[in-house]
Amino acid sequence: MIFYINDLFGEPYKHATVVVQGDKYYGTKATVNVWKPIVQQSNEFSLSQLWIMAGSYPSDLNTIEAGWQDTTRGEWWLQFGNEVVGYWPTSLFSYLHDGASQIQWGGEVLDYASGGQHTTTQMGSGHFPEEGFGKASYIKNIQIVDGSNKLIAPIGVSTLAEQPNCYNVQIGKNSDWGNYIYYGGPGRNPNCETTELIFYSLQCIL
């Protein structure tokens, strides 16, 4: 089961991510390409991040943005480059104290559909993944931490994009970047209309 983190009461979150699940995961490592996306209005946002998840939505989902887990003590640590920033103690979590069941990498946009139209808030660089290097946003060198506390390539990765005509994601692999993704999009465009938003809302409610 892939978790869709959406508020059905007026605050839909749109994703373009890749997902690995089906095992126990104790962390992740990746290099994130940072852009400055245009945000339509001040109460919306656009982000690029890593999700480490366990539990079930909406009742008891544990999620943090990035890090690795000390498999002896259970804490989740955050490292930026070579600097250890801090950790989340195991006491904060009902499920993540024993590893994660799912990890995601990619982008998310909060779309309030102002005026009944899909937002023009960009994800990533505002370009679709097929536009490639120099235009599309990417995350490269994607790895997970296994039960032996080793960094390995994720196995069985799938994509998640609720509205691919608005924001999308593509998976790749090569010798320079390892496992990587291109992701993002411009938001509202001739192929990303309110009809898609309405269909998605109904799909969520059902």
TrEMBL record:
InterPro entries (alphabetical): Glutamic_endopeptidase, Neprosin
Residue ranges constituting the Neprosin PEP catalytic domain according to the UniProt record: 1-193
Matching PANTHER family: OS07G0205500 PROTEIN (PTHR31589:SF24), PROTEIN, PUTATIVE (DUF239)-RELATED-RELATED (PTHR31589)
Protein name: Neprosin PEP catalytic domain-containing protein
Organism: Camellia sinensis var. sinensis
